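EI: anyone free to look at a 365-residue chain?
SC: sure, send it
EI:
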Amino acid sequence: MFNRSLRPKWNAKKPVIDKDRKIAYLLWCSRFVIIRLFFAPLEYFFYKLFIKDQIKLPSSPVIILGHHRSGTTFLQGLLIANPEYKSVRLFDTLFPDIMILGNKTLRPVLNFLLKIFNIEMELHKKRMHMDFPGEEDVALLSLLNPLAYNWGHIYPDNIDEIARTSIVDLTPNSPNFKSWKEDYLMFLKKFLFLYPEKCLVLKSPPSVARPHLMQEIFPRAKYIFLMRDPYTLYPSMINFWKISNKFTFQEVKDENIDQLIFGQSNILLENYIHLKNCIPPENLIEIRHSDLQTDPLRVLEAIHAKLELGDFKKALPHYEQYIALDKGVGIRKKTGEFSALPENRKKVEYHWGKLIEYYNSIGPM
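SC: here you go
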């Protein structure tokens, strides 16, 4: 794992970095050089010796499935407000090489600096901190695994090839599955070493297209599928790519955003629709984003009942406190106005007809 490239080849060619973004690329590279030269080998040795075979995976984690900008982060935060549950953190996903060594050292230092400089997470409209809920695919990217779908967010010109290798062609029988699974399990076991007594909540948007892989690893997992109204998902994804463009090594031009949105959303969500039957019906609940937004407690009660997640009344005070403190109202008004434009509705209906049908089939709660 220590000889991986910062520019993997997906179509026999390395991705091209825009000239005006090479300084950002070099800064990104320096992070890996420092960590991998001095700290990561020590933690990897510790993992091989004390964690790999000793730490067992949970039999039935809660896995949140959903497209980007569909309320999955809000639901993740809600569930882990229950002290019985825990989810990987932003620090773990950005520094999976040293998440154990850095937990009591680097993490509090970064939290202090982020608080001093008051850095905001634009997508979530919240102050950035290292304990914010994280995503496994970000960790795979930080481990430089070439099968991490999130490579497409920093090399958007190559996202079609990345989606093909990390989503479409990745199956339990594919030759690349072993390396993907090894990194995925290493990351989760290191986290479980830090928090052995907690029930695990997992959330990573690319996982919505990989229910068959999740079932391969966690046969008794409980799944929550969140789907957003395609008419409001579209403008939210425009905002997603405009913000993400600040952190890519290839510029996302305005005229290419629609192709990114519709092409990748069809791959992610249609894969879920095609493969979801691998999940036992009693272990899956499907929910509309609008229901979670308007009445989150009623949604949580339904989740607890369907998936048998324990005593809802015991967890209720923790959920209520999280909702009271949450200020992530996003861009609801602007999103609603934008999606109501006739030309945008026609565009969404043309590209996402199947997804609109599926969304309507879920029905309100």
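EI: The mean pLDDT is 90.
SC: 👍
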